[in-house]
Amino acid sequence: VQLVESGGGLVQPGGSLRLSCAASGFTFSSYDMKWHRQAPGKEREWVARISTRGFTTNYADSVKGRFTISRDNVENTVYLQMNSLKPEDTAVYYCNAWGEKNHYWGQGTQVTVSS
User: Fold this and answer.
1) 13 with 85: CB under 8 angstroms?
2) Tens-place pLDDT, residues 5-34
């Protein structure tokens, strides 16, 4: 099983980034997919979730209206489009596959929002 995040980097406040998470080794379309983040000195927090077929999405209040989660069940990839980024969005972002019995995590990608 692998979850490989990419797309992180340094961006100025107000900018945008698109994170990707490529999945392999399990039946991607059977898992809800989530993004979480962990800022320095803080606990990991949930950011967004998308249902197995992409019909339902949920967001933390802190990112609602700015972030969009999506998925491609052919490419086995989940995305997080992040707009209007703020310094407080700085964190390591992790994707997470959430199944009935199994949960898988990626290694994370760093997002830094700074001028």
Assistant:
1) yes
2) 999 999 999 999 999 999 999 999 999 999
